[in-house]
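Take the subject:
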Amino acid sequence: MAATFQFLSCQAEGGVATITLNRPAVYNALNDEITYELQDALKHVAKDDHVRVVVLTGAGKAFCSGQDLKAVSGQQKRSFMESLHKRYNPIIRAMRTLPKPIVCRLNGVAAGAGASLALACDVIVATEEASLIEIFVNIGLVPDSGSSYLLPRLVGTAKAFELCAMGSRVMAAEALHLGLVTKVVPTAELDQAVKTYTDHFAQAPTKAIGLIKKMLNKSSTATLDEMLDYEAYCQEIAGQSADYKEGVAAFLEKRKPVFVGK
């Protein structure tokens, strides 16, 4: 993966691409540059056929503290709408439509848009010290970057309202209980826990997983009849894949399948 960035790193090895937000001095707060770099990094991993799973994490003690308020404090007549349409919304759309799984390595606090980034991942593996906070209301703003869509689907409308309207910090243990994160481990075990997922996904039928992701995205706004039709549509695509043929052959030959992600 031939791409260099100033405020993040993107490394690929063994089918796993790791994107690391790299502004640790400001807890990986999001300035203009890093949001555009993250858009570019997601485009790179989407196009790279060798990448079959993505890890998103932050350098240092935090995952991401959200918008860098110091970076925008001096701007006159700033358009929040323009910022979201150009900077944040393309990131969330790219993450949710990426036909590959994204594992969040939640190494610390995820606040505001940082929480949205975490929630947009498919799997969240958190340290016991990690936390999420919809901090927007504390400065008189509303949730953005997909939080108003993702959060109630994970915890229900009433709890989502409480978390957003009160700006409550959710520690990892409670986040696991609420269904906000997938797994919680001690800090020393974080990398191994993430590796358990990436090892699986790097050898999984990637095309089928991409279709599963599309189906689950659609299911939150579709009727049963619409989903039955969409399942049939997606199954037709999966049934024509090389991985399906390999899966059936491996089953008949009583061996472990070797999926290539196509």
